[in-house]
Amino acid sequence: MIRIFLLFALITSAFASDVQRYRWKNGETFLLFLEKNSLPLKQLYYDLDKDDQRLTEEMRSGIHYQILRDSNQTIKQVLLPLNDELQIHIYQDKGSYAFEAIPIISTTRTESFTTTITHSPNYNILKETGSKKLAQIFIASFKNSLNFKNDIRKGDKLVMIYDQKYRLGEVFSMPTLKVAMIEMRKKRHFIYLNDDDRYYDEKGHEVEGFLLARPVRGARVSSHFTKRRYHPVLKKWKAHLGMDYAARRGTPVVAAGSGKVIYAARLGSYGNLIKIRHNDGYETRYAHLKSFRRGIYRGKYVKKGQTIGYVGTTGRSTGPHLHFELRKHGRAINPLRVVQVTTKKLKGKERKAFLTLKKNYDESVNLHLANKTQFKKLPKFTGKCYVHSLECQANG
């Protein structure tokens, strides 16, 4: 049975323990991590079943993880986050080490701040918060409707209200924007997260595109959609009915839109393939995957931006890349020509519910503007955890 422990509350035999936070380095493997920390390879890798071994390959560079050591610097526990939902837990059990995958325990807080534009929204959000993630979601939310370069003026105000996850007292995962407001030439522009998980403007019109620009973040396009392409493996001309995104093996692949997984298995030249059915007859395909993310299977509903697999070179492929296709009623179409495959205008009861939500958000925005709400910065991680009566103070 999976045992879900709070990292800091489990060790009750010691009065004090050190909790150190580290950053997973680029190119580091799970086996290398075990060797570097003198942890047993046989128990924690070679004796694992194939699914758990594959799970260890999902560690990504830049992720923060924690190691708890006792007063003798012996490792008592390790927590290695794999994604927003799952983590590897290594712990001592009856004199030896054990491995398990457990859910991530996190809390969510609604936070907000206001700032005055002196240069640009991106610059001032970064200056105010130090968070690239907050700047990223703000810019992305308005990118299809506002021109920050030409229409922004010094002295304009902006407000962000968002949900932020915390894990072990530290910011974790991407924030979820609830409402944002920016003044431009004395006019206020809003974006609201509705109860249907879509974003709308003040008039109840959907403002977010259905599809993500790229299902592999930071990847370069190595081959475009074309009806005529010389195939590098078959050595002949044929249609290339998708986009190829070149990326390192193991790079996360995200769902381009919300929908139901209708296929997740190997299929001929596609190699490991995922098909997702979306609204209005649209379907996306993700081919040549190294592996599927744990929990991705036929019938699973996934959200836009959710990790579904990892870049590989299975099937007919000359190197690691994602082959991405967009189809409507079975016909392949060019993803780059589809900015918004569907937009929604709220009507009837949906619009009435949205206007009530909008009114509450507007009152919150006005309140934060009046109070000049400042971003609250967390104290730095101290690296010391005092375990006493099942209480832990990880941040001083």
Write up this protein:
- The relative contact order is 0.13.
- The longest helix is centred in the last third of the chain and has 24 residues, at 348-371.
- This protein has three domains: 16-105, Nuclear Transport Factor 2, Chain: A (Roll); 107-209 and 345-371, Nuclear Transport Factor 2, Chain: A (Roll); 220-334, Distorted Sandwich (Glucose Permease (Domain IIA)), CATH 2.70.70.10.
- It is 17% helix and 38% strand.
- The protein starts with 15 loop residues before the first strand and ends in a 10-residue tail after the last strand.
- Mean pLDDT is 79; it is low at 1-15, 227-231 and 381-396.
- The protein contains seven helices and 24 strands.
List the helices and strands and how they pair.
Elements: E1 16-23, H1 30-36, H2 41-46, H3 50-56, E2 64-69, E3 75-81, E4 86-93, E5 96-103, E6 107-116, H4 121-129, H5 132-142, H6 148-151, E7 157-167, E8 170-184, E9 187-193, E10 199-200, E11 220-223, E12 226-231, E13 236-240, E14 243-246, E15 252-254, E16 259-267, E17 271-277, E18 282-289, E19 291-292, E20 301-302, E21 307-310, E22 321-328, E23 331-333, H7 348-371, E24 384-386
Antiparallel strand pairs: 1-2, 1-24, 2-3, 3-4, 4-5, 6-7, 7-8, 8-9, 9-10, 11-14, 12-13, 14-22, 15-21, 16-17, 16-20, 17-18, 18-22, 19-21, 22-23
The tally of domains stands at 3
Shape: globular
Alpha-beta classification:
alpha+beta
CATH class of the largest domain: Alpha Beta
CATH architecture of the largest domain: Roll
Detail the poorly predicted runs: 1-15, 227-231, 381-396
* CATH topology-level fold name of the largest domain: Nuclear Transport Factor 2, Chain: A
Global mean pLDDT: 79
Distance between the termini: 34 Å
**Percent range of helical residues:** 10-25%
Instruction: Please count the beta strands (DSSP E, at least 2 residues each).
Output: 24
Please report which band the strand proportion falls in: under 5%, 5-15%, 15-25%, 25-35%, 35-45% or over 45%.
Answer: 35-45%
Number of helices: 7
Largest sheet: 8 strands, antiparallel
Question: Taking Cα atoms only, what radius of gyration do you get, to the nearest Å?
Answer: 24 Å
Domain M23ase beta-sheet core: 239-335
GO molecular function: metal ion binding; metalloendopeptidase activity
Organism: Sulfurimonas aquatica
Cofactor: Zn(2+)
